[in-house]
């Protein structure tokens, strides 16, 4: 996580598994991050508690192409190589 007020240097560094992370989005309340990886898993992280894993969602076959959160509701969607939006 970067802070632009501190000369764009990282202020928080968190190691996260050994998978290639390719998509990330924040929830509507900005308390959660949704991170997509190379095997089709979306992981929900809590920003308030040192990026603790809240839940893992398995859905896509293969790598994720995109993860998007709804701007006002607590919903998110993901699309993988199988071309299904869930």
Can you walk me through this structure?
The structure is a single chain. This protein is mainly beta. It has one domain. The strands form three sheets. It has a four-stranded antiparallel β-sheet, with no helix packed on it. A two-stranded antiparallel sheet has the order 1-2. It has a two-stranded antiparallel sheet with strand order 7-8. The protein is globular and about 40 Å long. The model has no long low-confidence stretch (mean pLDDT 82).
Compact description:
The chain has strands at residues 2-3, 9-10, 21-26, 32-37, 41-46, 52-58, 64-69, 76-80.
Q: Beta-strand level of the residues, as a percent range? A: over 45%
Q: Please report the distance between the alpha carbons of the first and last residues.
A: 28 Å
Mean pLDDT: 82
Radius of gyration, in Å, reads: 13 Å
The string of secondary-structure elements, in order, is EEEEEEEE
Characterize the biggest β-sheet.
4 strands, antiparallel
